[in-house]
């Protein structure tokens, strides 16, 4: 993914601008924000290349390779050059703020076409997940104001949402909206988190 930020973390991510982008969008896809580690899968020199951000060898990669064999073998038999598959890996050994118990899964987050450099849209991801028997981040249908109200709730055991806004030219703008509890769990004070209140 191109780097994206939390709502109100930067001026261009203000809640007012996000609301305007949503109102003018061709498509808006809202998915559950998983609290794990990003895994990228592609093909290089006819071999599978599994990486995390900044690394070609670590515990997350080792577990991703194991899950691709044990849990998602259909994908490894059919992935071809020209696409990068993006996953969030959830495993007990890789502890984060959100607790998933003994879950061992790789959730499909996105697929980038390397010829056009465009991300496939969510309905296309669903078809890919069905074809290869993959887990996929759940789509949710919420308004911006509802998400910004819900982030103040406690006990959700949820990081938040990823909101992908697609304009008429198929350009993407992606923003994260996270629960207050997640920021507190990450050791950030209430005053240091981005403001998540939708203003008039």
Q: What report would you give on this structure?
A:
The strands form 2 sheets. The protein has a 5-stranded mixed β-sheet. Strands 4-3-5-6-7 form a 5-stranded mixed β-sheet. The longest helix has 12 residues, at 59-70. Helix content is 25%, strand content 28%. Strand 9 and strand 10 form a beta hairpin. It is an alpha+beta fold. The chain starts with a strand and ends in a 15-residue tail after the last helix.
Task: Briefly summarize what is shown.
This protein is an alpha+beta fold.
Distance between the termini: 31 Å
Rg (C-alpha, Å): 17 Å
Largest sheet: 5 strands, mixed
Strand content: 25-35%
- How many E strands? 10
Number of helices: 6
Structural class determined from secondary elements? alpha+beta
The parts where pLDDT drops under 50 for at least 5 residues are 188-200
General shape: globular
Mean pLDDT: 90
Main attributes of the structure:
200 residues, disordered C terminus, 6 helices, alpha+beta
List the SSEs and their pairings.
Elements: E1 5-6, H1 15-24, E2 27-33, E3 37-44, E4 47-51, H2 59-70, H3 73-76, E5 83-90, E6 105-113, H4 122-132, E7 135-136, E8 139-140, H5 144-150, E9 160-166, E10 172-178, H6 180-185
């Amino acid at each position: 993914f191109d780097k994206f930020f939390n709502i109100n973390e930067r001026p261009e991510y203000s809640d007012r601008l996000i609301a305007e982008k949503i109102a003018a969008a061709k498509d808006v896809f809202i998915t559950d924000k998983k609290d794990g580690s990003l895994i990228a899968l592609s093909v290089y020199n006819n071999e599978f290349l599994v990486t995390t951000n900044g690394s070609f060898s670590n515990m997350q990669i080792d577990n991703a390779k194991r899950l691709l064999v044990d849990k998602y073998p259909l994908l490894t038999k059919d992935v071809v050059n020209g696409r990068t598959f993006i996953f969030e890996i959830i495993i007990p050994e890789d502890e984060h703020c959100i607790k998933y118990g003994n879950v061992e899964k790789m959730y499909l987050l996105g697929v980038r076409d390397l010829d056009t450099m465009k991300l496939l849209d969510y309905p296309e991801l669903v078809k890919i997940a069905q074809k290869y028997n993959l887990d996929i981040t759940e789509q949710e249908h919420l308004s911006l104001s509802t998400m910004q109200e819900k982030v103040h709730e406690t006990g959700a055991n949820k990081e938040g949402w990823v909101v992908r806004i697609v304009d008429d030219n198929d350009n993407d703008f992606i923003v994260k909206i996270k629960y207050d509890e997640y920021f507190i769990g990450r050791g950030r004070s209430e005053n240091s988190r981005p403001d998540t209140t939708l203003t008039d």
